[in-house]
Amino acid sequence: MKLNPLFSKLAILAVVTVLICVVLAQIGGLVTERRWRQREAAQTVEQSLAGPQALAGPLLVRACKESWTVQSADGRKESVESRDFWLMVAPTALKVGGGISPEVRHRGLFKVNTYLAQLNIEARWDSVGALAPRAEHPNGRLACEDPAVVVTLSDTRGIRAAEISRDGHALNARPGSPHPALRSGLHAVLPGLRPEEPLVVSAKLSLVGSQRLGLVPAAEDTDVTLQSSWPHPSFTGQFLPVEHQIGVSGFTAHWQVSSLASTAVADLMAGKPLPALTGDSGPDYVRVAPPTPGEKQGSLDVLAVELVDPVNPYVMSDRAIKYGLMFIALTFVTVGLTELLTGRRVHPVQYLLVGLALSLFFLLLLSLSEHLPFLVAYLIAAGAAAAVLTQYAAAMLGGWWRGGAFGGGIALLYGALYVLLSREQTALVIGAVLLFAVLSAVMTLTRRLDWYGLGATDRKD
């Protein structure tokens, strides 16, 4: 039984499409590999410089010890037992202001956003009476160290300079803290602190970090204002700014958080860890990492900002490849429609070459975007692919007019693809309208075509 030539060709084109999908999958794997290498570059910078910084404090901490005498059951022997405990008081009001100066560092081809944050912190306590210890045993004897003001950080390697002052008088800043759960940070001892008097502590920090900066609202009222020359911030965490301005010259953001809206104070006193600010390499992803094994469940509330790249070449290339099959299918439909309407026969090998040219566009885009701005790389890759396909289509379809029309259609498809990439929130509706328009055009042009008669006789060139 002789097969219908139309269905034979469709079967061959299906095999060609599978081969093209394999090529696209390989290019997609290459994009994934490059993204992982970018992450490794970021981790290398974090290991050598400092990682994302989360900050909590200032807090008042006092280390105490209670000792008491215990008699044996027969009353003949006595032994001394003791316990260590810590008293902690969060500020009544916490005010943080400062600037974030971005610093771009490179590891080979890969760019990593780091920053230098200059923070001015002021904490006020209306009363510090909670630092007065109380014995739990009738014969308990208390011994306490002087209270200390503590600022805890994710990565102390990022501290470039630190100043702590009490009521305008400078204090001696020391590493670590008296509290075992707040070892990563710095502290200053406050001798002669009177429980009934209010206290104001100021701190100036020059802090280096990578990509993200987070602040824990560990106070009854927290007020934070940050500004930077980076024009593409991403605000994350549990609290978004109440006000923000973003422009080409940078951003300014203002947060206000009440203890009624956050459990940060209680969680900090319960010993929960600082949030680990981790994120994907894409521009819109920052999250608070889940606790690692051994950590207490959950972490502190945080307000955070990330310095993101709005056009990440690997994210954009990955998104472009996801549209690759649709892109190639539309091109094949165009070629097939031209073949049906003009009677010009196109060999499956020619379909394969056209598909390979379209696939290599994505590889060319990936390689160029590592060295050039994404838009420039896209224009070069799209222009090269459209030029090659125009001259090939002129020979394939039998004329420069047809080749030019085909190349113009490819250029329009590249333009539509870039719109899909740059308009993430409206990409679905744009793609749906595009596909509907193409299907409508195909149905209109083939509405009078005798599909049963296509395979009855062989067409001649």
TrEMBL record:
Keywords: Membrane, Transmembrane, Transmembrane helix. Coiled coil: none annotated. The keyword Acyltransferase does not apply. The chain crosses the membrane at residues 323-342, 349-368, 374-393, 400-421, 427-445. The keyword Nucleotide-binding does not apply. It comes from the Bacteria. It holds the Pfam family CreD. This is Cell envelope integrity protein CreD. The lineage of its organism: Bacteria, Pseudomonadati, Pseudomonadota, Betaproteobacteria, Burkholderiales.
